[in-house]
């Protein structure tokens, strides 16, 4: 029989790993976008970081 509490712990870890992967990809994409000036890329990156920090809390 599977212990549900262990399963929930695993799900939480997977969610955190997924969240971290999404965060890395979004930040990398914002920094790579050469269609906009570097100052705007930096601003976008800061805004993304603020959104991720708000979502994590």
C-alpha Rg (nearest Å): 16 Å
By DSSP (H or I, 4+ residues per run), the number of helices equals 2
Characterize the overall form.
elongated
Low-confidence stretches: none
The percent range for helix content is over 70%
What letter string, H or E per element, gives the SSE order?
A: HH
| Largest sheet: number of strands, sense, barrel closure | none
How would you classify the helix and strand content by structural class? mainly alpha
Average the pLDDT over all residues and give the rounded result: 78
Q: How large is the share of residues in beta strands?
A: under 5%
Tally of discrete structural domains = 1
Distance between the termini: 34 Å
What is the total tally of β strands?
A: 0
Structure overview:
Helices cover 84% and strands 0% of the residues. The chain is an all-alpha fold. Helix 1 packs antiparallel against helix 2. The longest helix is centred in the N-terminal third of the chain and has 29 residues, at 4-32. The relative contact order is 0.11.
Features:
mainly alpha, 0% strand, elongated, 57 residues
Question: What's a concise summary of this model?
Answer:
The protein is mainly alpha-helical. The protein has one domain (16-55). It has helices spanning 4-32, 38-56.
Please outline the helices and strands.
Blueprint: H1 4-32, H2 38-56
Helix pairs in contact: 1-2
């Amino acid at each position: 029989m599977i212990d549900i509490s262990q399963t929930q712990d695993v799900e939480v870890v997977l969610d955190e790993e997924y969240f971290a992967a999404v965060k890395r990809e979004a930040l990398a994409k914002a920094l790579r976008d050469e269609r906009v000036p570097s100052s705007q890329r930096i601003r976008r990156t800061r805004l993304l970081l603020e959104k991720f920090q708000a979502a994590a809390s």
